[in-house]
């Protein structure tokens, strides 16, 4: 059915016969990640909430690609409008779930770096390499203190000790504030999900209702911009954490790299959200149903989701991120 007016083209288009192969491929790849996730969740030394949450995401992605493969074998006049709505919800904002996993991976790295302050009264092992002082060296207390500082240069003075002791409560308060900031940012990721559900609910009616079409169009931009803002915030947090003196940089760089890969999804969507079509099954340019547009969808939406979730499953997150 054609609409008398243009409405926003569906993200990823609707699956045709040519989409059967790619849909089966991605369903199989996500299913492989699911199997790896099941093994990670079954083994105690690798089981974490991050693994379980990522497993749920990959199961959903396996299902959605299997449904697209099934729909690709269905005549276009019989395609499911309910599935179209579901795809717009899932592809429009579902990838923000991976953002939540990356945020959860960054949190223990930052908090561990804040807690891992060197003890102010511990001498380095190298300090004990020197020979013992003379027996009469402790007759004068001031001389004794001077001798200790000379013999063990790593030993702090009284002022340094007082400053170190005073710093611990401040560091604890800072850790609490940062932990709360992580929690607040995680809760903010629910906003694009809720808005994305609204978009999916209204989308199929936007084909015949100009009023709903005018609601869906800007709301899709809002959802995508919120997701992009969250990912850019995560990248900025990684840059800030990199400058922390006791940060474990390799795991941090991994989080930053995965966040950068996932950023391709909202950037891609910003490029296509302006496309319009007069029919969900149209193959005209801008309908998101042409071969080039479908290829872009696979490369910039499906592949980043697969790479990020697959990487989180491939590593031992409990060990790598200190969870």
TrEMBL record:
<keyword id="KW-0812">Transmembrane</keyword>
<protein>
    <submittedName>
        <fullName>Uncharacterized protein</fullName>
    </submittedName>
</protein>
<feature type="transmembrane region" description="Helical">
    <location>
        <begin position="182"/>
        <end position="204"/>
    </location>
</feature>
<keyword id="KW-1133">Transmembrane helix</keyword>
<feature type="transmembrane region" description="Helical">
    <location>
        <begin position="252"/>
        <end position="275"/>
    </location>
</feature>
<feature type="transmembrane region" description="Helical">
    <location>
        <begin position="87"/>
        <end position="106"/>
    </location>
</feature>
<keyword id="KW-0472">Membrane</keyword>
<feature type="transmembrane region" description="Helical">
    <location>
        <begin position="49"/>
        <end position="67"/>
    </location>
</feature>
<feature type="transmembrane region" description="Helical">
    <location>
        <begin position="219"/>
        <end position="240"/>
    </location>
</feature>
<feature type="transmembrane region" description="Helical">
    <location>
        <begin position="20"/>
        <end position="42"/>
    </location>
</feature>
